[in-house]
Each structure stands twice: as structure tokens, then as C-alpha cells.
Amino acid sequence: MMRNQGGIEMAKLRVGLVYGGRSVEHEVSIASATSILRNLDPSRYEVWLVAIDHDGAWRVGAPGTSLEGAMQRGAAVVLPPTPAANALRRVAGGDAVAVDVLFPIVHGHGGEDGSLQGLLELAGLPYVGSGVAGSAIQMDKEIAKRLLSFAGLPVTPWRVLHSHELARDPKGVATRVAGELGLPVFVKPANSGSSVGIQKVTKLQSLPRALAEASRYDTKLLVETALDAREIEVAVLGNEDPEASLPGEIRTRRDFYDYEAKYVDESTELLVPAPLSESESDAVRDSAIRAYRVLEGAGLGRVDFLMERATGTFYVNELNSLPGFTEVSMYPRLWEATGLPYPQLLDRLIELAIDRHRRRAALETTFRKLGR
Ligand SMILES: Nc1ncnc2c1ncn2[C@@H]1O[C@H](COP(=O)(O)OP(=O)(O)O)[C@@H](O)[C@H]1O
Ligand SMILES: [Mg+2]
Predict the structure, then answer these.
(1) What is the pLDDT of residue 13?
(2) Which residues of the chain have pLDDT under 70?
(3) Going by CA atoms, what residue is nearest to atom 16 of ligand 1?
(4) Residues with CB under 6 A from ligand 1
(5) pTM value?
(6) Cα distance between residue 137 and residue 139, in whole Å
(7) Which fold is adopted by the domain 229-359?
């Protein structure tokens, strides 16, 4: 039990921490969940674990279970698409666990792309982060670019390719795209994360192979002009009135911020805050909020920029609706530097989730004529 200011006892909030997932970022998600679990205030929250294993099965672990224990031995659960049931049903035990809010920290496919959010919407459960549309458009780099450029935000020039056109004439497609954009270019699966499937291509003869490699991860690909740029990231927090953190910077000794640089290479540096002038910092924070609004952000989002060295222009590279969340990850570190420590950041995210759910739940679901 916790007490409010008047000394009245209030029940703890039941939080379902959803982690793991059926994606290449399964392990990254577990690392994020470990930090979240450690920092959720035990006097305020009762944490139920909802582990999604590599095959996509959901397992529930009661409060006190380890993340690994829930993943391996938790009771199988189903989430009925019945609003107000507010419950994860334990298939084995047959009973239901009512949770007040879910905190999904599942990166990539099936976690960050709107599908998990859709399931939670059907079940009528409040959850941390962006909704179905926001999650989906932030995940799809090509749709995101179209919307950002329509709103007048700078994005790098790009072309979109589909794997069926590639299969017909790989060399022809490569030659056309390189002719239009020049070289070097970046080749990316439209829906990607952790730099998986992403390559920098400097020679025309390497382009068909890079496209083939990227098309192992998605049927829609992006080819982008490669910029000589600094990588600046801003953490955004909020629903209707989002706020931007101080910017941070990533420096790698590798050719770009690839998978190795993200998770293996210990020389990768995260500079918090980024060494920028006050006016540069203000400009990038302002752009971050604009990009977040354009792409329907809610709760949280990390906006990643490429700051072109020659011109100082901040190009929006991508938004991440469920960014890495370990204590040493950029998102929480940026808030820490801006004056919001990790545990309070979690409190705020949970509040925002409940607040957003309340407003949406108050909307009409049937048509009634207003009385005269
Ligand atoms: N147009 C570009 N110009 C320069 N570097 C880029 C460009 N696009 C991507 N990169 C590099 O590749 C990395 C991964 O690309 P990104 O689009 O952020 O994919 P992911 O979603 O996998 O993080 C970036 O952090 C950056 O280092
Ligand atoms: Mg990125």
C-alpha cells in the first residue's frame, strides 16, 4: 500500500511490463526491461511480467519473478479482445490478472510497429507510448519521410524500391537509382531497427548486392543520399504538449552507426549533452517536437537527426517510438541531463499512458444526436 498526502492508503498500480518479442531486437528489449524493472518504485507499482518469447508466445510472471524466469517458465497467457475485461488470462491456471497499464518495451517488428498497440486497443488497456497509427508510421521509414517532407522538415533525398522490381532487373534498378541520387548512398529495409540490413554503398557495382541483402528484411527498400553528418538525438516526452530534452550526440569510429557500433564496439561514445551552440540546440529541439507531432508521437519518442557538417542543417533521420531504455541508453540519459531522473521518467510515462487512455475512452462509440 502507498499513502497519498492525506495519509489515505491507495492500492498500488498494477503495471504489466511487456518485453522480449519476435524480432532481432529481443535481447535489446530484455536489457531495457531489466533497467525498467529495477527503477519502477516498488511502493507505487506492482509489476507483472509479460514475456514474449522468440516464437511469439506470451508468458506471465507474477511480481517477484525474474525476467528470465517468466520468459522460460511463466504461465501461458492470452489477451482477450474484450474491452474492460482489463485482463491477461492465464491459460494454464485459468484465472485472470487485471492490470491497470501496460508498459511495452518491445523493439522492432511486432512491438514498435503498431501491431502490439492494436491488440492492446482491442483489449481496452492503457499502454505506454504511441498509438497504432503513430507507431506504424514511425516504424516505416518511407512513410515517415513522405510525411516529414510534406510538413517542410528536411529529410535526405531518397528513392523507394520494391523487391519485385529488383528481382526483374537488379542491375538496371541500381544504375537508375545511383544515376538519380549519386553515390555514396545508404540502402535500408523500410522497416528496420538496430541497423540490421543497412549498408553504405560507395561503388555502383556493390549496389545490387546491398539491395539484395536489404530485401531479406523487407519487401520495401529505401535508397538515400549519404550525408557527411554528425548524429544528434533528442528525447521527446508528452502527449498533446510534448517536451524535448537536451540533445545528445553519438560518435563512432566505424564507418557509420551500424549494429557493431551500437552493441559491440566499446569505443562508441554517447555525448550528453551534445556539444552544440545554444541556437543549434534550440533549433534541433524545436525540430524534434515538430517531427514528433507530424508522426503522431504519444508518450515518448527519440528523434534522430543527421546534422550535415558542411551546412549545419538538421535532417530528420528517423523516429523511434520505443527507444532503447537501459540506464545507459540515450533516451533516459537525455532526460536525466535535462533534470528528470530515470524513476521519475517512468512515473511520467505511466501517467501519460493513463491520461491518453482516459481521454480516448471518453469518446463516443455510438452516434447520438445532440439534444436540442
Ligand atoms: N542518409 C544517411 N547519411 C548518413 N548516414 C546515414 C544515413 N542513413 C543512415 N545512416 C547511418 O546509418 C545508421 C542507421 O540508420 P537508421 O536509418 O537510423 O536505421 P535504424 O532504424 O536501424 O537505426 C544511422 O545511425 C547513421 O549512422
Ligand atoms: Mg537509427
Answers:
(1) 95
(2) 1-9, 84-86, 92-94, 371-372
(3) 195
(4) 156, 186, 188, 192-195, 198, 224, 226-227, 229, 231, 256-257, 304, 306, 317-318
(5) 0.94
(6) 5
(7) D-amino Acid Aminotransferase; Chain A, domain 1 (3.30.470)
